Amino acid sequence: MGERVLVTLDGALADADAPLLYADDIGALRGDGVFETILVRGGTATALEFHLARLRRSAQALELPEPELSKWRAAVERAVKEWGADDEGMVRLIYTRGRDSEFDAPRSELAPEDPKPTAFVLVSPVPARVATARAEGVKVMSLARGISVDLAQAAPWQLLGAKTLSYATNMAALRFARRMGAEDVIFHSTEHKVLEGPRSSVVIARGKELITPPAKSGVLPGVTQRSLYAVAEKAGWECKYQTLFTADLFDCDSIWLLSSITVAARVNQLDGVRMSAPDNVQEIIDLVDKGIERPGAIGDW
Ligand SMILES: *Cc1c(COP(=O)(O)O)cnc(C)c1O
User: Fold this and answer.
1) Fewer Cβ in 10 A, N or C end of the chain?
2) Would the keyword Lyase turn up in this protein's UniProt record (predicted)?
């Protein structure tokens, strides 16, 4: 196993330490593209079909050419095979609009092709923060996202349900939280409704209930959250999509940040208030792990 594995969409292994993008790639110039992040565990890309389906939906939202999912699937499988089964890995699927200069060139008999999107799969080691977040949980700060829950419907160009490469504000929120002594963020709307983390879904547990904000409020539908719900329902939990106010976060048994790489991180402190671990913490962690390893039928996802 190498440090990183790079595979282009034609299925070819590339040198992960050699340059790949052109300087005028619109993904780099404007963040105009979409991505997915997938956990490799035991030599398998977890919940791959769910990630591919979301890649397609994100691409549709940006009016990118329809991704050829069979090629993406093959590229991921090639990359994961190369990565091996010994260590967990982080797979990134990157899909950008391609080269700026190709959009200026008129289509002609000599150059009849539409501009080609940039597409590749990169596997890297899982970041060091992940092990701590899984084992000990995370200190979280709630921050204003500055948007209403109505924005997703009213302004589709905000691309709120798409996993786009324009994550500079998400990263800025994480840096802000770090300066304030926290490790992660829960965004809320102008109505003080809970949204999501900069790279995770928020789920709370209360009694035998799990609650997450509905997608129409402008949060990204999370593969990890969806995988948890699929197994938790069978295990007797009531799984709900429901509006949560920030105040509700202090009236529950546990708060979880769910995401493909960290999987499940319990919030152990929110805005300076310690949140002690309830007895069923391990039960919930086990459910999420089981969920991503056996995500089941894709159904209405
Ligand atoms: C990726 C992401 C999530 C979590 O989705 P998973 O599919 O579970 O990884 C949630 N919110 C945002 C903003 C994200 O980028």
Assistant:
1) N
2) yes
Task: Write the pLDDT tens digit of every residue in 2-34.
Answer: 589 999 999 999 999 999 999 999 999 999 999
Same domain, 19 and 161: no
Query: What is the token pair recorded at 234?
Result: 């069978």
The CA 104 to ligand 1 mean position distance, Å, reads 34
Task: Answer with the one of 126, 155, 174 that is the final residue of a domain.
Answer: 126
Residues 140 and 74 in one domain: no
Q: What's the total number of domains in the chain? A: 2
Rounded Cα–Cα distance for residues 89 and 122 (Å)? 10
> Domain check: are 180 and 215 in the same one?
yes
- What is the reported pTM? 0.96
What is the residue whose two structure tokens read 């010994």?
A: 86
Residue 74: both structure tokens together: 């093959």
Nearest to 254 by CA among 224, 216, 283: 283
What are the residue ranges in the chain where pLDDT is below 50?
A: 1
Q: For 173-209, b where at least 16 C-beta lie within 10 A, e where not — what string?
A: bbeebeeeebbbbbbbbeeebbbbbbbbbbbbbeeee
Q: Ligand 1, atom 14: nearest CA belongs to which residue? A: 199
Given the structure tokens 């992660």, which residue do they identify? Answer: 184
Closest ligand 1 atom to the C-alpha of 261?
9
